[in-house]
Amino acid sequence: MRFDELLARPALISHLRETFGAGRVYHAYLFVGPEGVGKRTAAGLCSQALFCQAAPGERPCGDCPGCAQFAEGHPDVYRLQVPDGKTQIPVDSVRDLTAALSDRPFSGGWRVVLIEEAEKMNASAQNALLKTLEEPPEGTVFLLVARALGALLPTVVSRCQVVRFSPLPEETVRQELLRRGAKEGDAKWIAQISEGSLGKALACLNDDHLPALMRGAQAAWEAARSGKGVAAAAGAIKVEKDEALLALDLFESIGRSCIREGDEAGARLVRAAMEARKMVNSNVTWQYALERMLMDAAGR
Q1: pLDDT for 246 beyond 90
Q2: CB within 8 Å of 241: residues ≥ 6 apart
Q3: I need a surface site. Which of 25, 61, 245, 264 has the fewest CB within 10 A?
Q4: Residues linked to residue 261 through DSSP beta bridges, in sequence order
């Protein structure tokens, strides 16, 4: 993969390509943003660019020996991850990393430390990382990835150059889904509910049950609007216990689509779906929340 294939803001892509392609890098970066917006992919590309042997503007090329070694597992790339059977990155993992960094690089060039779930370092682990993060060995670059700045200690954040990744435009997500073989209708509503996350959109695209759920939501909404009665409308959609919040996302998507088409009923559906979400999160039964939402949205 190359930088021009990364779905992100053009200015951000250009900055990363120029910075890492030329090797003019800061000692520590924190890539932060919602899930599924390209942070991990970008961190991998930036890491690979440092080992690429192509011309600066072409890095990473994906074809040179440096890129091949990166793909196979470069000995100078360290990945700090949650150990098997654990839910956090413990302080011992950080201590092992700092000890390993005291040795010379295998290739004599760059070393990269990738922490793709930095928010999973516990407080002790983050504190143990501070000194090395502030003054890493020469030629060592840290790349931390996290969903939010608040998930990390301020002392960690302050030692990094923060790179913010924003949700992708809906049209960008729709076009990428079409490129990957989605049908036009599916691409449209999946992009609407993905909240700018390509990762979420691709998960929806690969969920065989989701199209049926969307058709049920559309049928329920049309039945409610046509005056067939709340019970009949609610019966048009079959929702498993763990699908309630996803179904409400779909109803919101339908409502927002109506708003874009100038149908004021869409605003009622969006508000009603939001209220239904509060009810479900408060352990109100799904059936009651669904029927109340449809009744309110239809103006009954």
Answers
A1: no
A2: 286
A3: 264
A4: none
CA distance 181 to 198: 14
Q: How far, in whole angstroms, is CA 251 from its chain's centroid?
A: 22
Write the DSSP string, 67-94: HHHHHHH-TTEEE--PPTT-SSB-HHHH
CATH classification (class only), 3-164: alpha beta
- Three-class SS of residue 145? strand
Q: How far is CA 130 from the centre of its chain?
A: 26
Report the alpha-carbon distance of residue 11 to residue 8 in Å, rounded: 9
Q: What confidence tens digit (pLDDT) does each residue in 255-291 have?
A: 988 887 888 889 999 999 999 999 999 999 999 999 9
Q: Where are the domains of the chain?
A: 3-164, 208-297
The CA distance from 96 to 130, in Å, is: 14
Residue with tokens 């690429």: 52
**Angle separating helix axes 198-205 and 170-179, nearest 10 degrees:** 40
Measured CA distances, 72 to 46, 116, 145 (Å): 16, 18, 22
The 3-state DSSP class for residue 142 equals: strand
Structure tokens at 37: 């917006």
Instruction: Identify any residues that bridge with 143 across adjacent strands, giving them in sequence order.
Output: 29, 114
For 4-53, what is each residue's pLDDT tens digit? 888 888 889 999 999 999 999 999 999 999 988 999 999 999 999 999 99
User: In which residue are the tokens 């030329």 written?
Assistant: 22
